């Protein structure tokens, strides 16, 4: 890629915002079946794990330097993982099954507790949790773009993996919010306004970090390295504790779901394979 990191970041932000907006509108356009949703979740799970291990973590170690790079990166990975786990526990904000054929496919091997009908304000906690999660995604995108620009006037494919994972994940999150709002009786105007505000959260986090990191007194490389490792931990937590368990406990379509998961990992690895060696070795 020959574009500058700044221009590429703006293009990524625009695409993510547009995909998020479309995701919020999808429930009124197409029927998102249970199997389709599970396939997307499997793909995104593999992609997020691959991005965390093949992109975010190696870049963090490189930017941290040879002396304490691995120790610092692992420490921040744990902070990111625990932080995202606590957010998931506090807000329980991922509601990814929007299909009406849910009962026919939910043959879980573990107890499944059905939630009562959506309260009019049920969406608030989900929206708040997803907004925080999305801001973290934006910061991760801004950080990886700063890491790409480290010593380079142009960007490689390094940030593309992070961008792709966020791009594919945001429509599901937006659908969660608008679907719960619709079930709670909110009109189209309220749903559209919330959808627009949510679509802007990831670009906001990315732009604020990208342009604001130099205002901090600490070393830019140290901050970016910490944020990259923190984001890796957050991605790992989302994939392992939220997305994959929902897919794992379904006995149907195991072959297709497994292939989608592995495809996500392969995509992340393939993106890393075309990066310059300097992006991983300093």
Would you write up a description of this structure?
With 282 residues, the chain is an all-alpha fold. Helix content is 74%, strand content 0%. It is built from 11 helices and no strands. The protein has helices at 5-25, 34-64, 69-91, 102-105, 122-148, 158-183, 188-199, 201-212, 220-248, 254-273, 278-281. Helix 5 (122-148) packs antiparallel against helix 6 (158-183). It is globular. It starts with a helix and ends with a helix.
Overall mean confidence score, pLDDT: 80
Order of helices and strands: HHHHHHHHHHH
- The secondary-structure class comes to mainly alpha
User: What's the oligomerization state?
Assistant: single chain
Uncertain segments are 102-106, 108-118, 151-155, 278-282
In brief, what are we looking at here?
Helices cover 74% and strands 0% of the residues. With 282 residues, it is mainly alpha-helical.
Jot down its keywords:
mainly alpha; 282 residues; 11 helices; single chain; disordered C terminus; 74% helix; globular
Topology at a glance:
Layout lengths: L4 H21 L8 H31 L4 H23 L10 H4 L16 H27 L9 H26 L4 H12 L1 H12 L7 H29 L5 H20 L4 H4 L1
Helix pairs in contact: 1-5, 1-6, 1-7, 1-8, 2-3, 2-6, 2-9, 2-10, 3-5, 3-9, 5-6, 5-8, 5-9, 6-7
């Amino acid at each position: 890629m020959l574009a500058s990191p700044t221009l590429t970041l703006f293009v990524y932000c625009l695409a993510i915002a547009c995909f998020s907006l479309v995701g919020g509108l999808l429930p009124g356009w197409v029927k998102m079946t249970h199997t389709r949703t599970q396939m997307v979740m499997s793909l995104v799970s593999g992609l997020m794990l691959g991005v965390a291990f093949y992109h975010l973590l190696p870049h963090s170690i490189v930017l941290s330097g040879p002396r304490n790079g691995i120790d610092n990166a692992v420490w921040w990975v744990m902070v990111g993982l625990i932080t995202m786990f606590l957010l998931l526990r506090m807000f329980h904000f991922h509601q990814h099954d929007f299909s009406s054929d849910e009962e026919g496919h939910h043959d879980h091997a573990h107890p499944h507790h059905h939630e009562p009908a959506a309260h009019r304000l049920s969406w608030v906690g989900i929206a708040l949790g997803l907004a925080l999660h999305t801001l973290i995604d934006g910061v991760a995108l801004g950080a990886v773009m700063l890491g790409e620009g480290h010593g380079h006037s142009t960007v490689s494919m390094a940030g593309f993996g992070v961008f792709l994972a966020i791009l594919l994940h945001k429509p599901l999150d937006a659908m969660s919010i608008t679907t719960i709002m619709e079930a709670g009786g909110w009109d189209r105007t309220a749903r559209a306004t919330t959808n627009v505000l949510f679509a802007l959260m990831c670009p906001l986090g990315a732009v604020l970090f990208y342009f604001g990191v130099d205002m901090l007194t600490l070393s830019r490389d140290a901050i970016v390295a910490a944020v990259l490792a923190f984001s890796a931990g957050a991605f790992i937590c989302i994939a392992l504790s939220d997305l994959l368990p929902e897919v794992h406990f379904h006995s149907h379509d195991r072959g297709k779901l497994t292939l989608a998961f592995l495809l996500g990992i392969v995509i992340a690895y393939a993106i890393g394979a075309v990066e310059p060696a300097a992006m991983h070795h300093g």
